[in-house]
């Protein structure tokens, strides 16, 4: 029997289940790189250890994630969600003048940025700033194999900002329940199975 969102309390649990069920299946492809579920889950667990043990992030903290389309974005996203850390995806197309106030409202503990397009983010007040190249150079700790705190369906997973076309951008709160139900709807609507792959082209 295939699993549905009802089997999980958070998105990280869904990844862990997939890695245990199909460790040798393809989880992620990017350019010429391929990541099996076994390998991708291990990378996520090591990222969890970095966030929890090295950076001392805790449930309810926020990270601003502005790495664009890159496997590291996915690794940190799942790692943060497994720890109950709120992720704020941030467009790499936003300029400093139009988004400094927005970043101030987010009040992130950590800012993950791409120095080639948004170097100004390294100066975010009261936040640890880590560029994509710096992250790739980190020797990550041993994997964190357990979730240190419960992360439930009603906990905030992501804050997504609206485009602001009709006013100021607003932060929309998305829970783990929202994400899990969206996955179910997407899977059912497109009749997807474990044998299928999908292309994600959006930033």
Automatic annotation (TrEMBL):
Pfam families for the chain: AMP-binding (PF00501)
Alphabetical UniProt keywords: Ligase
InterPro entries listed in its UniProt record: AMP-binding_CS, AMP-dep_synth/lig_dom, ANL_N_sf, ATP-dep_AMP-bd_enzyme
Any one Gene Ontology molecular-function term assigned to this protein's record: ligase activity, forming carbon-sulfur bonds
Superkingdom classification of source: Bacteria
Stretches assigned to the AMP-dependent synthetase/ligase domain: 15-202
Gene3D superfamilies reported in the protein's UniProt record: N-terminal domain of ligase-like
Protein name (database record): AMP-dependent synthetase
Organism, scientific name: Klebsiella michiganensis
């Amino acid at each position: 029997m295939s699993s549905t969102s009802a089997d999980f309390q958070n998105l990280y649990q869904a990844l862990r289940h997939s890695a245990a069920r199909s460790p040798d299946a393809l989880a992620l492809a990017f350019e010429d790189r391929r990541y099996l579920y076994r390998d991708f889950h291990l990378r996520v667990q090591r990222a969890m250890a970095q966030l929890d043990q090295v950076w001392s992030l805790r449930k309810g903290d926020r990270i601003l994630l502005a790495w664009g389309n890159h496997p590291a974005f996915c690794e940190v996203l799942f790692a943060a969600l497994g720890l109950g850390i709120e992720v704020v995806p941030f467009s790499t197309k936003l300029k400093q003048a139009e988004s400094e106030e927005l970043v101030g409202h987010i009040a992130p503990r950590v800012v993950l940025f791409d120095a080639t397009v948004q170097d100004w983010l390294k100066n975010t007040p009261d936040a640890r700033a880590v560029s994509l190249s710096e992250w790739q150079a980190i020797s990550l700790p041993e994997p964190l194999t357990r979730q240190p705190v419960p992360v439930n369906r009603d906990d905030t997973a992501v804050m997504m900002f609206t485009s602001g076309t009709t006013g100021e951008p607003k932060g929309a709160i998305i829970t783990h329940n929202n994400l899990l139900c969206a996955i179910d709807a997407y899977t059912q609507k497109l009749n997807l199975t474990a044998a299928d792959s999908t292309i994600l082209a959006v930033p």
